[in-house]
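Q: I have 225 residues here and want to know how they pack in 3D. Can you give me a structure?
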Amino acid sequence: MIKVFKSLVVLSLVLSLTIMIGTFGFALSDVDKLNIAIENRSTAYIENVSLNDARNLCRQLNVYNKFTTKDGLWLNWKNNNAYISAIDYWNTKIQDTQVDKFVNNWVRYNYTEDQRDMVLRIKNYILNTVDYDVENTYYYRYSAFGAYQGLAVCQGYTLYAQKFFNQAGIENKLVLDKPNNHSYNMICVDGKWYIVDLTKEWNMLQTQDSKDLLRVMDRLFWLGG
């Protein structure tokens, strides 16, 4: 009898937890729904939302997801419903996973605990393997996948570099310079923040000036000057 009672108690707890998970486990905020959809390159709908609220949702998305979507993610809005669909992404989830796998392996084989040296290894590798899409015609130019394939614009460079920094455990930020229609990375080494502007550095390398080459390949540009 006691065993039966214990079994019933356990069953009751399981059912209670199941109900709680069913009730609250998927009670995601609209921002969470959008972030998850973007990370999986899937479609998301937010019903009964005003245009102004849709704009506010965009502002709350994490920075990487803003970069991942076309136009920095400006939600489609129609008949009081906001949505994002498959055509709003610069690359597919499969392509993103392919890049992540490569980056993870590269960092594992090239890792050093000296963070300054690690940053230099990362940026020099990217500068030696990725060209700037001067013609601005390559479809994947705005994505990390485009940079992985060897051709990108500033946004592609920035997203690609961040994957390396993240995997190497280097604190970093994505920066969107709207007035200049530009993006770049910021990294923190030994408590100091540095700018890593791979597009600018790529342009410097094209001059083939020996001073520029040394500055780009062996130096970090500190925000303090």
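Q: Anything worth noting?
A: Residues 3-26 have pLDDT under 50 and may be disordered. Residues 2-24 form the longest helix (23 residues).
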